[in-house]
Amino acid sequence: MNWYFKVLRKYAVFSGRARRSEYWFFFLFNLLFTLILTAIDISLDFYNAEAGIGVLSGIYALFVLIPSIAVTVRRLHDTGRTGWWFLIVLVPVLGALVLLFFMVLDSERGTNEFGPHPKNPLEDSL
């Protein structure tokens, strides 16, 4: 749960690097909260089947939109790529698969142009 709040504390921070665990734990908790809120929306009849979203889950989605993009950009930085690679999701199907591949890659060792290695920032001084 700490990883989730860590990302929220960096609400709109697009600089720096994010470890795999930071990204994937945020993704996991985001998914869980969305499923719970969707279930609540359905039970309270707040869910709009035509739109495919409910009131509560929609508000939550808007709330975490910027932190989700920010942590994705920081994760791309951690793999040595610029945040502009995020726009590859605009390519149908293939773009999402390429971005998924980037998200599961290991961190680039040492300091890169986006900052020190987030797992062990002292590693570079040795």
Describe the secondary structure blueprint for this structure:
Blueprint: H1 2-9, H2 20-43, E1 47-48, E2 53-54, H3 55-78, H4 94-104
Antiparallel strand pairs: 1-2
What would your notes on this structure say?
The chain is mainly alpha-helical. The protein has one domain (2-111). It contains four helices and two strands; from the N terminus they run ααββαα. It has helices at residues 2-9, 20-43, 55-78, 94-104; strands at residues 47-48, 53-54. Helix 1 (2-9) crosses helix 2 (20-43) and helix 2 (20-43) runs antiparallel to helix 3 (55-78).
The secondary-structure class comes to: mainly alpha
Level of helix content? 40-55%
Strands, count = 2
Averaged pLDDT? 91
Instruction: Return residue spans where pLDDT drops below 50 for at least 5 consecutive residues.
Output: none
Question: Measured on Cα atoms, how large is the radius of gyration?
Answer: 17 Å
Q: Write the element-wise H/E pattern from the N-terminal end onward.
A: HHEEHH
Keywords: Membrane, Transmembrane, Transmembrane helix
GO cellular component, one term: plasma membrane
Pfam families: DUF805
Transmembrane segments: 21-40, 52-73, 85-105
